[in-house]
Amino acid sequence: MPLNESLIAELTQEAANTRKILQLVPLDKADWKPHTLSMRLGALAVHIAEVPGWTAMTLHTDGIDFANMDFKPKVATTTEELLAIHEENVAKAISALQNSKDEDYEKSWTMRTGETIHFVLPKSEVIRSYSYSHLVHHRAQLGVYLRMLNIPLPGFYGPTADEMAAFGK
Questions:
Q1: Dihedrals φ, ψ of 105, to 5°?
Q2: Is the pLDDT reported for residue 169 higher than 70?
């Protein structure tokens, strides 16, 4: 199986899981955060919705330089807007993956801030670590936020305690 097909299958599964949790985000509490050093709920949710787009960025560029970026995260005020950001980024990622070849993943990709190089990795590792694993990390963080707001959580890889309680277990 070509690598792009494997990555598309993995992204498709994780996108479905991400959709489940993004649908639960109470954007009327977008400014809430559990700690002074934590991200605001709304910013975290949008970040999660944007992360799948990093796959396309990785495949279409040789790296990123934070010193030369003019990134402005989107703002979502409704669930529909949040899900649209997610769907747009998933579609960009799938399109980039569909149009890639195995040899594209062997090329180096660099993360830097000016002259400071944070890492140089093959694009395959960047996609898995800084796109897919990064997404799962922040999705779990969002789960903690929602738990603290007493919002029942969906299962991603099996039932949650909330779902088991509904079954009397």
A1: -80, -15
A2: no
